[in-house]
Amino acid sequence: MQQKDFVMREIERIGIIMRSILNKLFGGRENFSVTFERQIEDTKGALLNEIDFDLDKFMRLNDEESNEYIAYFKELNIENVELLAKIISQIGFGASSGSSKEYLRKALRLYEYCNVQDKVYSFDREENMNKIQTALL
After folding, report:
1. Cβ–Cβ < 8 Å for 98, 130
2. Is the pLDDT of residue 29 over 60?
3. Domain housing 107
4. Cβ(105)–Cβ(43) under 8 Å?
5. What does the buried/exposed string (b/e) look like for 14-24 if buried means 16 or more CB atoms within 10 Å of the residue's CB?
């Protein structure tokens, strides 16, 4: 029972961290003294320091390896994976054209992973996937 409580607390903690990253770095408050590249680096650092998630490593993995890497993190439930996909897609929408599509493709794969893992249809997930697919065209 204690193990289950611990896992649930960790899942909640990871969700709070992910939402905090989204709000801090992409929450709409423009901070012109901080470049977007710096925001990306801060995001990578926060993910690595807070949940030991290496975004650079994740970006280099193929689809199968990416799924295995995500599955390794027991704290990443469907909701947290969707938050991660949202973080990565926000980076993709704001990144330079060279790396933009890589981030968007990886975010799309995360949403697809959620569709496979989750038995509940999500309108928000589908809407986010459509936005990414449109941007990739």
Report:
1. no
2. no
3. 2-136
4. no
5. bbebbbebbee
Name the pTM for this structure. 0.84
Domain total for the chain?
1
Give the rounded distance of the alpha carbon of 98 from its chain centre. Answer: 19
CA 6 – CA 4 distance, rounded (Å): 5
Phi-psi region of 126 (alpha: psi -120 to 50; beta: other; left: phi over 0): alpha
CA separation for the pair 57, 48 (Å, rounded): 11
Q: What type of residue is 72?
A: Y
Per-residue CA distances from 81 to 33, 72, 87, 89, 135 (Å): 30, 12, 10, 12, 21
Percent of the chain with pLDDT over 90: 47
List, for residues 30-69, the tens digit of each pLDDT value: 555 567 788 888 889 989 998 899 999 999 999 999 999 9
The pLDDT of residue 129 is above 80: yes
